[in-house]
Amino acid sequence: MSARPEHTPAPTRLSDYRPPAWRVDAVQLDFDLGIDTSEVTARLQLRRDDAQDELLRLDGEGLELLSITLDGEALAPTAWRYADHVLEIDGARDGSVLETRVRLKPAANTALEGLYLSGSREAGFLLTQCEAQGFRHITFFPDRPDVLATYTVTLRADRDRFPILLAGGNPDGTGELEGGRHWARFVDPHPKPSYLFALVAGRLEKIERDYTTADGHAVKLVMWSEANVIDRCHYALDALERAMRWDEQTYGRNYDLDVFHVVATHDFNMGAMENKGLNIFNAKYLLA
């Protein structure tokens, strides 16, 4: 099944705003990562807010749809339609679980939205850019900032090529797989919008330190970069600690996860992206 229609984006105006008819309370994402192709399985726990609108509409761009099920049953081709980058699904109910599996092509993703290869095939990272509407390049989703969900993310990849697997959230297990592959899982129990989702996979080195928030919560602060510049990340780590303390003292805001990752890369399409729990910076703005 292919989901790649041509489309010219329509303008989005504040005057046209309507609350979402459907919300997603919880997201489970499983990534099988590769440079040329990656597969993403998404399980969405749905909640209908608008009793008058029974049709489920999800955003999606550049996705090859491999399978789709609703409440454990495969959907017939007549039960869904895809046009103008919107997937419409019949039969969803309040509390339904939608599961889709899609194929992505990170190396060919020159739009640099969603999941893409940053750098060379031999040494580059796989990473994401989801602000403002990049998450729809990863999976089908109501990709708007007023839909907040918890995220459970499992990453699988070749250990030699992608020894480090990161996503926003608290670490929730790692393990080995057959064929030289491995996996890592991350859970963010606090609802967030889709544009704050992030993952990074590649060969990275780190420096880290322990930090205790004003309310007594232990947090691991971790800076990641290529090995040849990791020693230039100490100033950024100091700045992160000062910024977190300032937020606590000025606004009473305490960090709510167990780890805070920051990744520096020379091939990031933005200056920085402050994803929840996994910031990604262009190295020229981070290294000292």
Short description:
This protein is mainly β.
Question: Explain this structure to me?
Answer:
The chain has 288 residues and is mostly beta strands. Helix content is 6%, strand content 45%. It has one helix and 20 strands. The protein has one helix at residues 234-251; strands spanning 22-32, 38-48, 56-59, 64-70, 73-74, 80-83, 86-89, 97-104, 114-118, 125-129, 148-158, 164-167, 170-177, 181-193, 199-202, 205-212, 218-225, 259-265, 272-273, 278-282. Strands 5-4-8-2-1-11-14-13 form an eight-stranded mixed sheet, with no helix packed on it. A five-stranded mixed sheet has the order 16-17-18-20-19, with helices on one face. A four-stranded antiparallel sheet has the order 9-10-15-12, with no helix packed on it. Strand 13 and strand 14 form a beta hairpin. The longest helix is centred in the C-terminal third of the chain and has 18 residues, at 234-251. The N and C termini lie far apart (48 Å).
CATH class of the largest domain: Mainly Beta
Overall structural domain count? 2
Order of helices and strands: EEEEEEEEEEEEEEEEEHEEE
- The appropriate CATH architecture of the largest domain is Sandwich
Question: How would you sum up the global shape?
Answer: globular
Q: Averaged pLDDT, please?
A: 94
In helices, the fraction of residues equals under 10%
Catalogue the unreliable spans: none
Report the count of strand segments.
20
